[in-house]
Design a protein that fits this description.
three-stranded antiparallel sheet; alpha+beta; 3 helices; elongated; five-stranded antiparallel sheet; 171 residues
Length: 171
């Protein structure tokens, strides 16, 4: 019977995978947040259509912190198709504001309103609390589990620096 032969590169990859594998924990204490943000952004460039590295300037921003899917105070719109609430729109930059940041020979794009969401989970295990970044799927799983305080199995990401998955205990 032949023994499998592993190349040095394969051994390094297997060792790295083992050292950075994901942890799982079970928790009864958790909270999911989604920070919804509107930001006005404008592109400045010598040639807007083919500038390899244009300059982006941000103007006014507004944010709203969603917790566990509940309507936050100050919500203006929502819930949207992802169950998120949004703040009031920030004021659009005026032509004077746009021109103040313009350098000689630059063109200015039309202001663009960006919508971003930052998801986080705070959970408790053994009297310690951690807050880690997460994704939309984990946020939604917590929103569904939160009203009944269903215990969750959390799968942590590489080096335990994020939460990649949340499942109700028993699944």
């Amino acid at each position: 019977m032949r023994k499998p032969i592993f190349s040095p590169l394969t051994m390094v990859m297997l060792t790295t995978l083992t050292l950075t594998s994901c942890s799982t924990i079970t928790t009864h204490q958790y909270e999911a947040t989604a920070l919804t943000t509107y930001t006005w952004q404008v592109k400045y460039a010598n040639n807007l259509s083919n500038e390899p590295s244009p300059q982006f300037e941000t103007f006014a921003t507004t944010s709203l912190l969603n917790r566990n899917g509940l309507k936050p105070e100050g919500a203006v719109t929502g819930p949207d198709d992802q169950g998120l609430w949004w703040p009031a729109l920030p004021p659009r930059p005026s032509v004077d504001e746009l021109e103040q940041r313009k350098k000689a020979q630059q063109e200015i794009s039309k202001p663009e309103l960006l919508k971003t969401v930052e998801y986080k989970i705070t959970y408790g295990v053994d009297s310690q609390q951690r807050t880690l970044p997460t994704n939309y799927d984990v946020y939604r799983q917590i929103v569904k589990a939160y009203p009944s305080r269903t215990p969750l199995h959390l799968t942590l990401g590489v080096d335990d620096n994020s939460v990649e998955k949340a499942e109700p205990v028993g699944n």
